[in-house]
Amino acid sequence: MKASFELEAESSLEYLSRIGDFVLDSTRGSGLDQRETFHLMTAVDEACTNIIKYSGSDEIEIKCEVKDELVVVQIKDDGVAFNPLEAPTPDLNVPLEERKVGGLGIHFIRTLMDDVKYERREGKNMLTMTLRHRQNNISRS
């Protein structure tokens, strides 16, 4: 299976459910299991929420590609340059009440996805997240 889908959405918290529906619809039939779908949806939601809250972008562009056992989601915005991969990893061993605010969503993105890349090109932030579904690697008896 190979398919590609694109969405442009207003950079507003009101559009998060539309973005989520778009990703779900785009990956339907891709072979992602329930857990993998949850990981993908969590990562996309975290990335888009950060863009909406902090980037100053008016619009978010999302491209979702399904290629064999891969699902690739690219999120673009024209907000302030920010490479989430350079953000420090939060110290999860520190008690919750002593932790610094922020960074946990980026940590989720890094740990839930198989690959995450960032680049700034032509005045746009481009975050590319890849998830490899493992359904075909599970032997069924």
Describe it for me?
- Helix 1 packs antiparallel against helix 2 and helix 2 packs antiparallel against helix 3.
- The C terminus is likely disordered.
- The protein has three helices and five strands, in the order E-H-H-E-E-H-E-E.
- The chain has one domain: Heat Shock Protein 90 (2-Layer Sandwich).
- Strand 2 and strand 3 form a beta hairpin.
- With 141 residues, the chain is of the alpha+beta class.
In short:
With 141 residues, the protein is α+β, with helices and mostly antiparallel strands. The protein has helices at 16-27, 34-55, 104-112, and strands at 2-10, 59-67, 70-77, 115-121, 124-132. It is 30% helix and 30% strand.
Summarize the SSE layout with pairings:
Blueprint: E1 2-10, H1 16-27, H2 34-55, E2 59-67, E3 70-77, H3 104-112, E4 115-121, E5 124-132
Antiparallel strand pairs: 1-2, 2-3, 3-5, 4-5
